[in-house]
Amino acid sequence: MKLVSWNVQWGRDALGRVDLGRTIDEARHLADFDILCMQEITRGFGVLPGGPGPDQFEEIAQALPGFAVLDAVGADLPSLDGSPRRRQFGNAIATRLPVLQVIRHSLPWPADAAAPSMQRVALEAVVVADQGPLRILVTHLEFYSLKQRLAQVDELRRLQREAADHAAHPAPAENAMGPFAATSRPVSAIVCGDFNSEYGSQAYQAFIAPLAGAPGFVDAWTALHPRATPPLTAGVYDTAQWSDGPITCDFVFVTEDIRARLRSCEIDGKTQASDHQPIVVEID
């Protein structure tokens, strides 16, 4: 199973040109992926630099026939012209694997008057892989506020404990047709995205700390490259937006119980199709 995680910045490349279709083609060049997890996808935010199209979730669906395209919106604001169409900004998962549950988690947003911020989300999809169901979560944590990032890390860890509790104490479905489906969720998970937290930072260390009552998380790249520092993932080519210099803030984490199934995890340092670099993971 191959997964690509990428903050695609609504298809805006390092020179400021927007073409989401080209970005998806670049992802397909990197890997024949089964799952593509994207951050910074927009619907209705045409005023963003480069002028993205009106519905990028639909653009993804058109570009990837045969894939299920799932969306989770964080910022959801009224239009600027008074029309009923809203401005939405969030994450997407495109997958050709069968999808069971889809859960959209609003992440904590504690007040922080010192920093601009937006509502953040984590999109969870339970997919059916060869060795059984697996939870895939894509997220994008707050950039400006450490207080909010730490709260969001705590919530992602709480969700892992919740999933473990559902796995240990599943409830049956009410019936085959209604919304009260069986509550069992797999413990095994991949959590990926732009954490806006530098490698080794307080938020990074908090996320990978041991987790009571459930398998915790390990960084897939460092698990396969022990004693090495991961490559830079943001601001490598777009030095205008990242004037303070590039950082490593994009990660793919896996739960400890599937660590042995990791086959490869690489950060592509060549593409300039976004201000972030994509991560490609292969897992048995």
What does this protein look like?
With 284 residues, this protein is α+β, with helices and mostly antiparallel strands. The chain has a single domain, classed as Deoxyribonuclease I, Chain A (4-Layer Sandwich). Helices cover 19% and strands 30% of the residues. It contains 5 helices and 12 strands. The strands form 2 sheets. Strands 3-4-2-1-12-11 form a 6-stranded mixed beta sheet. The protein has a 6-stranded mixed beta sheet with strand order 5-6-7-8-10-9. Helix 3 runs parallel beside helix 4. It starts with a strand and ends with a strand. The model has no long low-confidence stretch (mean pLDDT 97).
**Largest sheet geometry:** 6 strands, mixed
Low-confidence stretches: none
Number of H/I helices: 5
Rg on CA atoms, Å: 18 Å
How many structural domains in the coordinates?
Answer: 1
Classified in CATH, the superfamily is Endonuclease/exonuclease/phosphatase
Rough shape?
globular
Order of strands, widest sheet: 3-4-2-1-12-11
Q: Quote the CATH topology.
A: Deoxyribonuclease I, Chain A
Q: Can you tell me the CATH class?
A: Alpha Beta
